[in-house]
Write the structure tokens for this entry.
Amino acid sequence: MGKRVAVVLAGCGVYDGSEIHESSAVLVHLSREGAQAEVYAPDVDQMHVVDHVKGQPTQEKRNVLVESARIARGNIKDLAKLDVKGLDALIIPGGFGVAKNLSTWATQGKNCTISKEVEDVLRAFHAAKKPIGLCCISPVLAAKIFPGCELTVGHDTECETWPYAKTAETMKELGCKHVNKHVTEIHVDVKNKLVTTSAFMCNAPMHEIYDGIGKMVREVVRLA
């Protein structure tokens, strides 16, 4: 039997949900490793809906679970039903939905709150010493919940290649150790069993983002 890995999504689309390419990369690499992905999302309204052509919020209302089902091809469960006992690992792809629907990071930064369901799941995997994989912006969830943990969101100096580098500085203010890594690299916090990679925090070619996520997934499966 392959490892059973929970994948938690935050909607569908980079600006208001889970980043679709990151989510797809996670699912592809889990399949390649012979692992079974079990996809979950919270049954809550999105913070808002963004027109991805204009990059502007609209007046629409959408549900995180319903939108995430698009990526999961309908094979998805309510996050409230996740039972850590039957699972070997957890992976949360990035996308602004992590900072808008799974937490309030987008509006409150280091003073954010994490959705209770999401925090409970992260704490359950951590307490069970089961590995957690996080990419792009999702490491901020661990930064908020596990003080002193080691993470990467890429680089901590802002430039054209790393436009979101201030995230690393904010994570440091929460007491985390940020480790600079290239987009194709991962960082492993051995003590906390956290595996992180920067993904679209970097302006990089798509294949490099897929390669970094692949390394993250392989290490999560290896640790499981």
About this structure: The chain has one domain: 4-223. The domain at 4-223 is CATH 3.40.50.880 (Rossmann fold).
